[in-house]
């Protein structure tokens, strides 16, 4: 027992709970600082890499340079350096999947077709450019056809209206078209010419309750206000003598 007691007495006491917690917090803080320093160093290396790559890009004849998919922080570095260097930087793709940055020279800004193709995830090359040019050509041609058809239809409608004395007649016989569905009499009733109610939205003057003019109405309103103000003043004058009398009678 004497030997065991001497061994136990020689051992250091276990650290208190507060000391263990402080040590843990200190280790966590040191680990976080190391991670932040490591991230700063990595960003500095990446910034240097981007600056060197854009420096070479500014001196050659390439139209654009494309970076690999990166997170938002690294893409922000690319956009910052591109803006400082006088370039155009755009990002395409889905976030956390294939979002990447493409840098252009200002004199070779991307066309609308290229931006659309990259946003659609198709990339951009000579074959895709040719395909989009053909699509645009077909679209413009169809728009021109539609425009000419609309102009021609409007012209024919105007000519038909002039020929009929300003009256536009239907191009199909609605009576015969719907006779097999709703009968001859109902079809005739449905196809008859409708007339606009000319008095719709108007109230005859004889049905109006107030026949006064605007000037007379305003004058009556002012007269009512003056009368009401005069009555209030008279009431105040009546109450003032009563109040003075009651004050004199109080001990």
Automatic annotation (TrEMBL):
Annotated stretches, region: Disordered: 146-171, 190-251
Pfam families: R3H
Extent of Polar residues compositional bias: 242-251
Low complexity biased stretches: 151-167
PROSITE patterns named among the record's database cross-references: R3H (PS51061)
InterPro entries in alphabetical order: R3H_dom (IPR001374), R3H_dom_sf (IPR036867), R3H_sperm-antigen (IPR034068), SPAG7 (IPR017330)
Residue span(s) of domain R3H: 44-107
Signal peptide residue numbers: none
An example Gene Ontology molecular-function term: nucleic acid binding
UniProt cross-references to PANTHER family, sorted A to Z: SPERM ASSOCIATED ANTIGEN 7, SPERM-ASSOCIATED ANTIGEN 7
Record-given protein name: R3H domain-containing protein
